[in-house]
Amino acid sequence: MDDKEWLISRKQFVKTIVLSGVALQLPWLNSCSSDEEIGETKPLSKDQYKTVRSVQDILFPADGNGPSARDIHATDYLIWVLNDKRVDPEENAYIIEKLNDFIAKCKSDHGDDFFDLYQSTQEEFIATISSESWGEKWLSRLLTLIFEALLLDPSYGGNVGEVGWNWLSHDPGQPRPTKEIMYPEILDRL
User: Fold this and answer.
1) Contacts from 176-179 at CB under 8 Å and sequence distance 24+?
2) Burial letters for 83-112: b for 16+ Cβ neighbours within 10 Å, e otherwise?
3) Is the distance from CB of 75 to CB of 115 less than 8 angstroms?
4) What does the alpha-carbon distance between residue 9 and residue 15 come to, in Å, rounded to a whole number?
């Protein structure tokens, strides 16, 4: 092979470095643009929403074995639950209070928002939190809501596209909920 084949011009070198730098930033840029996909978050702020969504991503990850928390829209289902007037207000307040405790401890321990940490740091932080009584209970509640989102009818905001049912090869019972026979409307008639 000729030595000249290995030579690179300064212009080619700079161009390669710039393009490499841009390519390395694409995952970061993509994660920054995820705010666009965040819909209604009330009663959570956008940062609370992004935090709990990141926690759910760690608890129920996209590991190639099935859908992730994000795939089943677990955070959207959590919003639905938090807005359900029939859920015990103390339970919803607990979820939000412990989310705030989680956010404060993360900022205290790491100086940054949870959703901005590297995944390995997020996993370590969740392991630390799970060793505390309040953290274990809060994470357990989040896991329960993830499983509900995985298994419920898509009309309640989770299991979008029946991805959870398809993964489990579940054939839903009939009749499926319509607006008239969804959980809140049935209880309103009692």
Assistant:
1) 177/153
2) eeeeeeeeebeebeebbeebbebbeeeeee
3) no
4) 10
Each domain of the chain, given as residue ranges in start order, spans 38-189
Per-residue pLDDT tens digits for 5-62: 444 455 554 444 444 443 333 333 334 434 446 666 789 999 999 999 999 999 999 8
Predicted pLDDT of residue 19: 43
Phi, psi of 88 (to 5 degrees): -50, 120
Please state, in angstroms and rounded to a whole number, the distance separating the CA atoms of residues 78 and 99: 12
H, E, C per residue of the chain: CCHHHHCCCHHHHHHHHHHHHHHHHHHHHHHHHHHHHCCCCCCCCHHHHHHHHHHHHHHCCCCCCCCCCCCCCHHHHHHHHHCCCCCCHHHHHHHHHHHHHHHHHHHHHHCCCHHHCCHHHHHHHHHHHHCCHHHHHHHHHHHHHHHHHHHCCHHHCCCHHHHHHHHHCCCCCCCCCCHHHCHHHHHHHC
In angstroms, the CA 27 to CA 141 distance is: 30
What does the alpha-carbon distance between residue 67 and residue 48 come to, in Å, rounded to a whole number?
23
